[in-house]
Specification:
The chain is mostly helical and 185 residues long. 67% of the residues lie in helices and 4% in strands. The protein has a two-stranded antiparallel ribbon. Glycans are attached at residues 48, 58.
Length: 185
């Protein structure tokens, strides 16, 4: 049983309104970033007289990024709305798990598009793949912009996931170690 009451425990709730504001702001910032990523990617196409038309739906990594961006935007909107409802705010574990899932999905799509962009920009000479960005420069530039926006979206969700982890685990007290037990060893 604890005999010492931590004075910082009463100050623990002092930062919650600021944390809620930061969390909500990040969620709301992720929405236009995700929508912009989708719009840039879906409208991206370029025609080359030698190789033909290249569209986003020719590349599975870009289709995956559009899908994850749509999921990020919808989830961010839903989570921001749910954070205003008091019964959902008390369910920190729901936000923790769902924020983790969305952050992981976002990083997987960033990695997939980054790999695709690297191959398009540099090629893979050992596999006899030539680089494609010299032929499709505008397409590659828009993919790069979409990748940057999606990476910023991931960063938002990473910070959101850290905040939700803090909320979920801050309700537990740290383990108590009796000083006599430590000295006795």
């Amino acid at each position: 049983m604890r005999t010492h009451i931590d004075d910082s425990a009463s100050g623990k709730n002092h930062h919650l309104p600021m944390l809620w504001f930061f969390d909500s702001s990040l969620r709301l910032c992720a929405i236009p970033l995700s929508v912009a990523t989708m719009w840039i990617t879906v409208t991206n196409k370029e025609d080359n007289s030698s190789y033909g038309m290249l569209k986003y739906n020719n590349l599975s990594a870009l289709k995956y990024m559009v899908l994850v961006s749509a999921l990020c935007a919808c989830y961010a909107l839903l989570a921001a709305a749910c954070s205003l409802v008091r019964c959902f705010v008390s369910k920190a574990w729901i936000f923790f798990v769902s924020d983790q899932i969305v952050a992981y999905l976002a990083i997987t799509s960033v990695a997939a598009v980054m790999e695709m962009y690297y191959l398009a920009y540099n090629g893979a000479k050992e596999d006899s793949w030539s680089e494609a960005c010299s032929s499709y420069g505008s397409f590659c530039s828009k993919v790069k912009l979409a990748l940057i926006l999606h990476t910023i979206t991931f960063c938002c969700f990473f910070v959101i996931a850290v905040i939700s982890a803090f909320r979920a685990f801050s309700v537990f007290d740290p383990p108590f170690v009796n000083s006599q037990e430590v000295q006795g060893d």
